[in-house]
Every structure is written in C-alpha cells, then in structure tokens.
Amino acid sequence: MSTDTIAINNPILPGFNPDPSIIRVGEDYYIATSTFQWFPGVQIHHSRDLVHWQVIAHPLNRQSQLNMIGNPDSGGIWAPCLSYNEGAYYLVYTDVKSHAGAYKDTHNYVVTAQHIRGPWSEPVYLNSSGFDPSLFHEEDGTKWIVNMQWDFRKDRDPFNGIYIREYSETEQRLVGPSYRIYSGSPLGLTEGPHIYKKDGYYYLMTAEGGTSYEHAVTLARSRTLTGSYETDPLAPMLTASGKPELRLQKAGHASLVETQSGEWYIAHLCGRPLGKGDNRCILGRETALQRCVWTEDGWLRLAHVGNSPQDQVQRPDLPLYPLPQRAERDDFDAERLGLHWQTLRQPVAEDWLSLAERPGYLRLKGMESPNSKFRHSLIGTRQQAFRCEAETAVEFEPESYQQMAGLIYYYNSQNYYYLRISRDEAMGVNIGILANDHGVYYEHTTPFIQLEAGASCRLKLTLNYGELQFYYAPAGGPWQAIGSRLDAGKISDEYATHMVDGYFTDWGFTGAFIGLCAHDLSGARKSADFDYFTYREPQAYSQDMEEKEEGR
Asked: Contact, 34 vs 310, CB < 8 A?
C-alpha cells in the first residue's frame, strides 16, 4: 500500500474483498467484507487514516456460528453489514445454502460483540426471504432489518424489492409487519441496501445492475423510514458501466461513512480486468474508496465531476497511521495460522491440520478430493497483485496415486491448477500438474516427472497477469519449470459463471487463492509436511498504474 501523503490509492483492499460495509467508531474505521465459502466467515479490516488497512478479525470463527459443510461454490457468507450502537458491534449476514437456478436458500443472521476482535456471539436467526441484510439503528432505539426479497416465480422480477421489518433485540426475532420500501430504479437487480439518516431524510443506498460490468450505486430518500423512497434524479451516483477505459470496473455495492473531520466517503466494490480486451478479473472483486459531497438539495455526489470511480482519491484531513503488514514468509512457527490464511468451509481442527505435531511445519492430513464441497485439507491466501509469486517446500511420501499434496492455484471446486506430488505404480513418486476446467479433469504434465522418494521438494508458482507458470526444485536442486504457461484467466469470476436457458447454473463471486493442500482418496489421511510458505509481489499499485499508461 502506498504511503502517498495526498491520495488514497485504489483499490484499498486488493484481491478478493467484495461487498464492503464501512463504519467509524471514534478514530477507528472498520470494513467488513464477504468471504463466501471460505472459513472463518467475514473479514474485518481496520484503519485510522483510510489509507493504510490491516485485517484484524474473522468474527464467524466457530462451527456453531457457521456450518458451511456442503455449501455450494460461491455460497456461504454474502454481503455482511457491520454497525455499532451504544457500545456494541452488530454484524448481519447471509449464509447461502443454494443459489443456482430459480431458487435461492438464503438464511440471514445477526451476531454481536463488545469488542471488534470478539468474541462474537452465537447467531440469532432473522429470516430467509432474500439476501444482503442490513441493520438500521433508529434514534428512538428501535432496530430494523432491511434486505432484498427474492421472487422465484416465472415471468416475475426475481429482485422483488427492498423490504424492512423491525427487529426486537429482547425477543431476538423480527416483529411487526414487513414493508416494501423500494422497488428500484430502471437499472434493476436492486440489492445491497443500507439506510442512513441525515438532515431529516432517510437515505437508502442500494447496489443495482448486477455484480458485473453493469454494476452501480443508486441512492433514494424518504422523510419516513418505511417510505416511500424517491430515487436520486441523477442516479446512479457511481458506476463504471459503459466506460471500458477505466481501470476500476464493476463499481457498485457501496456503504457510507463520515470522518471525524466532517468528510464523507463511500466504500464500494470494484474489479480490475486483465486488460488488452480480456475482461476477466483474476483478483476477484475488490474494495475501493471514493470521496463524496452533499449538494444543497440534499443528494450525495462524488467529489469529482461525474459518477466514475477514480484510481486516486484525496485522503481525509487525518494524521497518517501506518499499520503492520503480513510478512512475506510464514515458517509455521506460531501456535495458530495467521489471519491471511483461510480454509474451505470448515474450521481448523487437529484431525486434519496441525502446527504442533512437527514444530516448525504445517502438517496437513489428506481428506477428500480437490472437487469436494465437504472435507477438504486446504489452506489458502488471496492473490492480491497481478504479478506475484508463491513458494513452499513439502515432505510427502505417498503410497498410491490416491494420495496427493502440493501447491494449488484455486478458484473453486470446478476450476483450479494443482502442482501435486503423488505416486504411480510404475514410476513411483512423481510430480505433475492436474487441473479442473469447468469440472473437466486435465493433466498438464505428460509424462509426470519422477522424484526421489521421501526427499523434500520445493514448489513455486509465478503469476504475470494472465500467465501462470509452475516450478519445482527436487532435493535442494535448482528451480526447473514444469509444464507450459497456463491460462490464469480461468481462475476468475467471469470464467466460473455459467448460464443455461436464462438461469445461472454456476456463479463466480470470489477470486484467486494460492493454497497448500493434501488429498487422500483412500481415506487413510496420509499427511504432508510443509516447511514454509512465501508470497511476494512488487510495488503493485505503481506497477499497475505504469502498465495502465502503457495500454496493457
């Protein structure tokens, strides 16, 4: 992250960090972002200057709070809303159990905490009528849940509108009637609601146009909480739709914050395509900030002319507050994994992951296949720059072809590249690249390469925009490229999303992860020991801007 004293450099949260919900508590700013099928649920980021950010917590870190075993790819945690009221933090969110086709099973909950780092409470169930719930704290002490409602019926608008209903904190349930307060602007696909109160108006900020290149932010307002709401006559207030020259695309799904010095910003979702006609966003949907102002007639506008997202934004009148960033190298010496690691659908448990059985090593005990949506021995970290590299060293003695371990470049269970060590009846221990491409199995190394049994082997991948290259170094030898350059663009939302007969049969909402994993299809839980992991990237913002100027 740049330490530029003038500008906020976007995106402020690079890599898979979508659906930002921003708040200020005193001098501290917090942003909660979606994590989908990755556990623990929800990432909370902290800043004091809106320039420097650090991940500080994952609130949903117990299986009693969040059981995602069997959840679909891009299911799980959608669009958390973070708020603070009278000394307590509130987090409302959706746990999506199904989303492809006509129906969506979307269960909404609220958890609370006295401290932002937790512990957070057990969840209270709210409803399942739609997704993207938000909590509004009224001045009279009442609390209100706002969410979009889903209509699965034929020839109906599935985005049925924004609804509001009172939440009784004492009874821990929704009470009273449900009000439909907004049907959306002509852009449609109205979701992601947040309500703010200012100068006698209730302002409803929504996401519209879908989550891809037509995404937008629309504002509406009303003199009463339950409506009706009038759409901003100049809506949308933010969008990149129809502006392919912009570096930040997919701008939408925003939330609003006021600084202690009286300045206003929105945090919003965005995406950065690979460029040169390739619209795939391997870094997933990210978070950016835009500076805003209020007009004399009471509408929110971007501080600059127009409604396009800017790469650089004037920072607030606050002292700079640098924060520690993750180290490039993880030697697995700590008692628990760092916050930059996440797992698929399940919490860390000694029956499949240990940092203690062999001190200084990460031990993964192989479970189900890379295609599993249940028990998968994998830890992953976000790719956060177009150019980066990752490296590890693994000791693994497979006894059959059903046992594998190594380094994976992962989007979801249907799309990944996997540099794995395994065993063949004739060759013995070997290394090669496997892949899933829309669920179809491929081998990108023919034949596989023999390795010395029982010896440590280093594994590496490098990413250069749309190109992925794997390397290996057996038994302390030099690095050797393995396989050809692969299409990294397949590890993206755009590639993962499928539509059949007008229905989306598969969605892509996440982003690229680099992971360490072990698999044992025999059920014996053969373990692999990883000595370290490094993730390196250049000065991502300055490099990305330079290449934008060159027309990449």
From this structure: no
Q: Which of 182, 315, 313, 185 has the alpha carbon at shortest distance from 237?
A: 185
pLDDT tens-digit readout, 107-160: 999 999 999 999 999 999 999 999 999 999 999 999 999 999 999 999 999 999
CB neighbours of 86 closer than 8 A, spacing ≥ 6?
none
Angle CA 42–113–164, to nearest 5? 70
Phi and psi, residue 494, nearest 5°:
-60, -40
Is residue 431 within 8 A of residue 419, CB to CB? The reply is yes
| DSSP reduced 3-state for 351 | coil
H or E segment at 493?
helix 493-496
**How wide is the angle at C-alpha 87 spanned by C-alphas 85 and 91, nearest 5°?**
55
Residue type, 412: N
The verdict on pTM exceeding 0.90 is: yes
E strand segments, 272-402: 285-294, 300-302, 312-314, 329-330, 342-344, 353-354, 362-365, 377-382, 387-395
Residue 20's pLDDT band, with cuts at 50, 70 and 90, is: very high
Query: Could you count the other beta carbons within 10 Å of the beta carbon of residue 72?
Result: 20
Nearest partner of 491 among 402, 413, 398, 388, judged by Cα: 413
Cα separations in angstroms, 255 against 195, 266, 445: 9, 5, 46
pLDDT digits (tens, 9 = 90+) for 383-418: 999 999 999 999 999 999 999 999 999 999 999 999
Whether residue 114 contacts residue 88, with contact meaning beta carbons closer than 8 Å, is answered with yes
State both tokens at 64.
């009693």
- Residue-wise pLDDT for 506-532, tens only, equals 789 999 999 999 999 999 999 999 999
Phi-psi region of 29 (alpha: psi -120 to 50; beta: other; left: phi over 0): beta
Choosing from 132, 166, 191, 520, the catalytic residue is 191
Q: Could you tell me the CA-to-CA distances from 431 to 459, 463, 517, 550 in Å, in that order?
A: 10, 20, 14, 38
**Close Cβ partners of 478 (under 8 Å, ≥ 6 residues apart):** none
Strands 43-47 and 28-33: antiparallel
- Phi first, then psi, for residue 73 (nearest 5°) are -55, 140
- Catalytic site residue from 19, 73, 330, 391: 19
Q: Residue 202 corresponds to which tokens in the numbers above? A: 């209730």
On average, the pLDDT of the chain sits at 95
CA distances from 150 to 103, 324, 342 (A): 8, 42, 30
Cα angle: 270, vertex 275, 279; to 5 degrees = 60
546 three-class SS:
helix
Q: Which residues contact 238 (CB under 8 A, 6 or more apart)?
A: 216, 217, 251, 252, 254, 266, 268, 290, 302, 307, 308, 309
Residue 19 annotated to the active site: yes
Q: What is the dihedral of CA 467, 436, 363, 382, to 10 degrees?
A: 50
Residue 423 CA to residue 453 CA, distance in Å, equals: 9
- DSSP 8-class letter at 203: E
Residue with tokens 């307590």: 88
- Check: CB of residue 355 under 8 Å from CB of residue 335: yes
